[in-house]
Design brief:
The chain is of the alpha+beta class. 48% of the residues lie in helices and 16% in strands. Helix 3 (84-91) crosses helix 4 (93-110) and helix 5 packs across helix 7 (216-227).
């Protein structure tokens, strides 16, 4: 009895080796691309293209764990658009959506490659800045605040001014709070910025060595002017 199996005729193989035009390969590529797109949809806010609320908490947890391992602090910024309800009430939700997309674009253009920008909900945004000290996070928030203030939205032949308030805090290796407690801390500084008149940055107290010069805002305004 012959136990050898007959060799398959390569000409009858629907996908012979080396055939880049194989329909099975094309189908596999298509399925991979669909999975990639679905994965992006699950973690992305449809309107702004930023990461969504669900992904935000996943990313924040990972960055806080990284801080506990490496000792490098992670900074969290919460940003809320001032008087956004008035924009919706006066100009309509379509213009409101245009404003949200516009601010999201400004955020994308301002952050570093490793930063994680998210739409937290409504008119509130969250930005995770890995390996960032408090003074650098505050400087970034002030820069973004000035960029938003100096970048009106064009709609229907009019220029619509926008302002935003910010809260900033950091998580250190010595921290003993959860992701949600971290967010609550940053939110408290955001609410402080709102209550003190809006269009400003409020943050956790600096350590002595991390204090920022009093002319920080003037320097940032100079940077914005140069960019323009």
């Amino acid at each position: 009895m012959n136990d050898k199996q007959p060799i398959k005729d390569i000409q009858n193989d629907p996908c012979p080796a080396g055939d880049d035009n194989c329909p099975n390969l094309s189908e596999a590529e298509r399925l991979r691309e669909e999975v990639k797109q679905l994965s992006a949809m699950v973690r992305t806010d449809e309107l702004t293209g930023l990461f969504n609320y669900r992904y935000f908490y996943q990313a924040l947890g990972l960055e806080m764990e990284r801080t506990r391992r490496s000792g490098q602090s992670v900074c969290l910024i919460m940003c809320d658009l001032d008087y956004f309800k008035d924009i919706n009430d006066v100009h309509g939700h379509e213009v409101g959506n245009l404003v949200l997309s516009h601010v999201a674009d400004l955020v994308r253009k301002t952050i570093r490659r490793l930063d994680i920008p998210c739409r937290f909900g409504g008119e509130e945004f969250a930005i995770i800045l890995p390996d960032t000290k408090l003074r650098h996070g505050v400087r970034f928030a002030n820069r973004l605040r000035l960029i938003v203030e100096n970048s009106p939205v064009k709609s229907g032949g009019m220029m619509l001014g926008i302002q935003a308030s910010f809260g900033v805090d950091i998580y250190k290796r010595s921290g003993h709070f959860t992701e949600r407690e971290f967010v609550e801390s940053v939110d408290s500084f955001l609410y402080q910025a709102k209550s003190e008149g809006r269009n400003r940055v409020c943050h956790a107290p600096y350590a002595k060595k991390d204090e920022v010069p009093v002319d920080e805002t003037d320097a940032l305004i100079g940077e914005i002017d140069k960019d323009e």
